[in-house]
Amino acid sequence: MFYQLYELNHAAMAPFRAAADIMRFAYANPLNPFSHTPFGRTMAASLEMFERTTRRYGKPEFGLKQTTIDDRTVSVREEVVWSRSFCNLLHFARNVPPGRASDPRILIVAPMSGHYATLLRGTVEALLPSADVYITDWIDARMVPMTEGTFDFDDYVDYVIEMLHFLGHDTHVIAVCQPSVPVLVAAAVMEEANDPLSPSSMTLMGGPIDTRINPTAVNKLAQERSLQWFSDNVIMNVPWPQPGFMRPVYPGFLQLSGFMSMNLDRHLVAHKEFFMHLVKNDGEPEKHRDFYDEYLAVMDLTAEFYLQTVEQVFMKHSLPKGELMHRGKRVDAAAIRNVALLTVEGENDDISGVGQTKAAQTICVNIPEDMRMHYLQPDVGHYGVFNGSRFRREIAPRIVNFVRQHSRAAVKRPVQRVIKGGRTA
């Protein structure tokens, strides 16, 4: 009943939240003399803090309306080009200058781990000037009616394969964090079937390929608990009146609670500073609002997908052991021969430890040496692997270069294997 109590509490707070919002506008109104006093600003700040900590954050927008191509600003149009019950495929269609050579087609597989695909806004933005970008927009499981059936790990892999078929020849795929495993599985399944539409390259970023290596707090939790414990304690039914009423899910608010508890001090300090900026009225709070509007927007995962991922990836380590199954058939990573592989890790990653993603280089034994590369980005944590200034400056250019070099329309040539920022081998 915990999910139902959560919903009930949210509904019960609605009138208080609305009243707080109205009073905040009154205290912040410049026509109100109190708004120019420390007392007025403190009241407005307190009311905003109350409203923000009790609201439900809706799905954010990408908001990418333009990009720069060849020093020219061009418009970008977001469109759904493929759709299934649990996922839409978004295309960021650019108004490319006439006569310009086509850019590589990249499919970004966003993590289905609690946050929306918009968490990768910075990833998309950095790649848009150099690539034709598509991204998986996973749908909140609580919004999918029970009549649409279930969605498990095998379905996830099938969705990736279907999208690669839809996008066609010479598509490159990027998996950020959690989807590194199903994307690698999809590539192996396609290669074993001699599928001509298998991706030209596969970039895995901060993903849990082998969580036995440098286990983090997240990995250790999965090892300390049984699968039954997870089923009994974190799987709940979607409450009425949501469209997915009675669907068993792993609620997004539980995942968010776990992430925030890992860095609770940092979040408390950030909110304290936010409050002080509001009182001082110094214009800084907008950065805080933008970040937490994104960070606090969460979605539910289907129970079957979540439990299978916990069991196969974090408990049994089935992929690196060669024991992972897809539709009743063992997945053979050695079948991957024609898909170039780039793995990217962050030196300070506290979610996917250093070496966990690089393990893909070990299990994909038949990828030629000149079609593989590993890069370790110094001084970044998990989110710095796919977002932020170092991503834009150091990681994104390497991804673009790797993709271009391994386009099946291009002539193959040897690539340096970057082991760590500033050093190659």
Description:
This protein has two domains: 1-55; 64-227 and 299-404, 3-Layer(aba) Sandwich (Rossmann fold). Helices cover 40% and strands 18% of the residues. It is built from 14 helices and 16 strands. It has a nine-stranded mixed beta sheet with strand order 1-2-3-5-4-6-7-13-14, with helices on both faces. Strands 8-9-10 form a three-stranded antiparallel beta sheet. A two-stranded antiparallel ribbon has the order 11-12. The longest helix is centred in the first third of the chain and has 27 residues, at 2-28. Mean pLDDT is 88; it is low at 411-419. It holds the Pfam family PHB_depo_C. It comes from Rhizobium phaseoli.
User: What CATH first level of the largest domain would be assigned?
Assistant: Alpha Beta
The assigned CATH architecture of the largest domain is 3-Layer(aba) Sandwich
CATH-defined topology of the largest domain: Rossmann fold
What is the makeup of the main sheet? Answer: 9 strands, mixed
Order of helices and strands: HHEEEEHEHEHEHHEEHHHEHHEEEHEHEE
**Structural class estimated from helices and strands:** alpha/beta
Distance between the termini: 55 Å
Q: Please work out how many helical segments DSSP would assign.
A: 14
Dominant shape: globular
Rg calculated over all Cα atoms = 23 Å
Number of strands: 16
Average pLDDT: 88
How are the strands of the largest sheet arranged?
A: 1-2-3-5-4-6-7-13-14
Strand fraction band?
Answer: 15-25%
CATH superfamily of the largest domain: Alpha/Beta hydrolase fold, catalytic domain
How many structural domains?
2
Helix coverage percent = 40-55%
Instruction: Indicate the low-confidence ranges by residue numbers.
Output: 411-419
